[in-house]
Amino acid sequence: MAGQQDFFGQLWKEYAWSDSRYLTSDPFVLCMETVTAVCWGPLSFCVALMITFQHPLRHPLQALVSLGQIYGDVLYYATSMFDHYHKGVTYCRPEAYYFWGYYFFMNFIWIVIPGYLLYSSIEASGRAFQALDKQSKSAQGNGHAKKKN
Hints:
By secondary structure, the chain is mainly α. It has helices at 7-15, 27-52, 58-87, 96-141. The chain is elongated.
């Protein structure tokens, strides 16, 4: 991407001011971005379609994608902080704008929104299981279902 002069190449280089690992073929960043492009990106589109059509598998898949996004972001922050504090290597320019604007805020969004969606899916799943338990107990009370010994 570093040699690209198109819009996305320029965005990539601009973001690299906040994390130079994006221009140095860092193994972690390459693996993380590959997983994002191959798995989380397409699955996110799938979840968006499931939300649109109110598909019953929306919440399990939404929880999976959200947890994957949070996990990737935590690893992203952790590897950078490890290198900073353990090895003394800093990947961000010294200007606060690049650290707080690009590195922190732009990545923190990928914790906040998936965190909310994960919570929402867990709540919805809990309500679904609660309703199923209530229905099952009601059916047993009416003699429609056999009790297990």
